[in-house]
Amino acid sequence: SSGINAEYGEQHLDLQDQEPCRPSNTDSTEQGVGRRHFQDQDVFVDWQLKSGTEEDRKLLYRYYHVFREGELAELVQEVPQLQLSEVSYDKANWCAEFTRL
């Protein structure tokens, strides 16, 4: 999820970790994408479209870029208009808080 908007001020960004076996800041038994180990950083993940009857359900694929440790911080620091405040790890996601200058 993302808290990025066009306004100046504090922003928050959550991005999927490539190796989600790290200890999380919160106790989570969440299953799904957050618990998969990815061999590559650019992957397609299956996604079941659940609408209508059982026969109407479709299997689709979503594109994910999963992040290595430190990668999100490096990207934020490359943007001169952003000041990185904090990087944290929660529920198999890298989280960054930064201020748009």
What does this structure look like?
The strands form 2 sheets. The protein has a 3-stranded antiparallel β-sheet, with helices on one face. Strands 2-3 form a two-stranded antiparallel ribbon. A hairpin with an 8-residue loop joins strand 2 (42-49) and strand 3 (58-65). It is elongated. The protein is 7% helix and 41% strand. It has 101 residues and is mainly beta. It has one helix spanning 71-77, and strands at residues 9-16, 42-49, 58-65, 82-90, 93-100. The model is unreliable at 25-33 (pLDDT under 50). It contains 1 helix and 5 strands; from the N terminus they run βββαββ.
- What is the gyration radius calculated from CA atoms? 16 Å
Strand fraction: 35-45%
Biggest sheet strand line-up? 1-5-4
Low-confidence regions: 25-33
The assigned structural class equals mainly beta
Number of helices: 1
What's the total number of strands? 5
Secondary structure: helix percent? under 10%
- What is the makeup of the main sheet? 3 strands, antiparallel
Provide mean pLDDT, rounded.
75
The gross shape turns out to be: elongated
H/E element sequence = EEEHEE
Alpha-carbon distance between the two ends: 21 Å
Provide keyphrases for this structure.
101 residues, mainly beta, 3-stranded antiparallel beta sheet, two-stranded antiparallel sheet
Summarize the helices and strands and which ones pair or pack.
Blueprint: E1 9-16, E2 42-49, E3 58-65, H1 71-77, E4 82-90, E5 93-100
Antiparallel strand pairs: 1-5, 2-3, 4-5
